Amino acid sequence: MSSSILQESRGFDRRVGGSGSKSQGRYSGGRSRTDNCSDPGNAADTKIQTGAGYVLCKLFAPNRVAFRQALVQGDKNTIHPIIEWLFRNMTDLKKRSYLAQYLVKVEVPVDILSDADVSTLYEQYEQLMEDFKSLHKESEALKNSGYSTAELRSDLETMEREKDIVIKRIERMQKKVESVANREAMLSAAHTLRLEREREKELANQKQEQQTALNHAEQRVGRLQQQLKDARQASTGATSEGLLQRLEEETNVTTYIVKQKLPKELETRQVEVQILGKVLSEPAMGREDLDILNSKLQVINGEINQLVERHLATKNPSEDKLAPFRQQAAIIARKKETTAELLGELRGKLTSLNDELDERQNQLKELAGEAVLGGEEFKRYVNKLRGRSSLYKRHRAELLALKAESGVLTRTIELLQTRNELVLQGLSSEGIRQALTLNVCLIQSSEGILNVCLTQSAEEMRHGVPGFQVARQKLEQVSVEKAAVDQEKGKTLEDISSLVQQLSQRIASKKAQLAPIIKELRPLREQHQELSAEYEKKKKLHDTTAAGLESSTGKLEQEVKSLREELEEDESQCYMLEAQCVIHQVRLDRLTEEIKFYISSNPGDKARSLREQLSACIIEQEKVSRQLKEQQHLVKENQTNRVRQVKLWSNLHKLLECKKKCLQEAQQNSGVVHRERGAETLILQ
After folding, report:
1. Residue 134 contacts residue 102 (beta carbons within 8 Å)
2. Domain IFT81 calponin homology: where (predicted)?
């Protein structure tokens, strides 16, 4: 049964090796596979154990000897979980088995490595292994970058086509240039033009850099001037003791930040960087590896808790008189840390606001073309604006008064027009209209007749023609008719005057009716003014009361916040004490169990005791220590040879660097290479 399981595991190993060789063929260009069936049984078992050791070294490292024995014997409880785990992590294991063929170092004895040739070959072997690591990382990065082979091929084809086009253009230009008479002069001029353009670009870049540096310098000068102004303002009205106290406070804060806060943060960042570097240097981990690490972490946390409990057990809390002071020191330290963090945040905000202010000032300077006012000039400008605003308010009040008066006058005109229309409507009878029409006609006819008569009489007198008396009689007749019309007109005026008297009486009656209402309105207006004044007083009182309540509310909120923090600290301390009680109880149970195992006469119970386990671990560690001492002795014996090899390698490195430098100088003397925006241009001298 065990042999059949072993054969089954061998066949599975061949299948896994075949899939791994397929993946490895992509990298190594068709590496030959090894068939385990052609090897003897012992060799196949050795290969299976070696491959399983590569893949399962982390999972079965604590009990490797028993694992190998169970694998050789074909134990189901060992093989079936392995097969399940292999099928579950097939992709990761293929990659790991492929990398293990190239990254697992060949163990060479120390005495053989002392040979110079073997040492050189081994160093080349390690260097090739490092090259393989870098190439494999680049390959994985290219695979994960999302670029497909079709896209890369299309890019290469387009680049080839562009290259052909450029070559053809160069050939055409060469043919055109060959027919030119002064070809060399024009080529030199083009060369000079290109150099000058490149120099112009460099100068433009330098100008941009200098402009940027100038802007930074101006911003720095502005910040320093602002700091100087702040310092001067702070110094006004301050005493020397106050300044010294302020400087001492700033010095203490800066000292705390530099000597305590920043070193701790730097240390934590360095530890994080080291941990991340270790994680990056290790190969990819699966779920099983993470479970193993979590189990180790739990064991270490348990040991830490044991040490803490042991430390607490050695000290009696009742005798520890410094415990309250330690708690106070811890609270003060936490407050200092929070205050320092708040100070850092506020400084960062202040810096960002200053930068934003500088940026806005620069934008304003670019748009307005004038310098931004500051200091005394800004105060004078504000005072000037206040004077103008008061003048504006006064003129605005006058304008509003004039508008109100204009509205009243407009309304009065409208009322008078409506009354005039009513009067005209009252006078619109047929007789009055006819009389007025007749009067107008008579006046017009009399004026016409008078003009005609005067004209005729003047002509008659000048020419000596009679007829003057006739004209006079007609004029008298017209006068009589006009007198009759004037009498009728007088009657009409009497009617109008009577109508005006009626309207005046009606207006007087309305005034008499409105007089008591106006008398009642005057005390109401006075009452309204009194209520308005009282309202303003009450409003001011309300505002002051609200401000006082807000300040007291803020103080109460701060007190509540501090009390909540104290409550949270007390609760956390209570939880910690409860956890310590639970841990003590668990340790007490374990101690009683350990005492039972130690007192028991059964050898199995004694073997289960922690003392026996620790003794076995101590013996094993002593063996490891002896082996390490032997290895140390061998290293010390071979130290001189290795130091000599290091010196030789360093000399060889210096020689190669010198050759490289000479080669670069020779290349530079033959031409000038310009690099700009990812392109290189070689200019032959």
Report:
1. no
2. 64-107
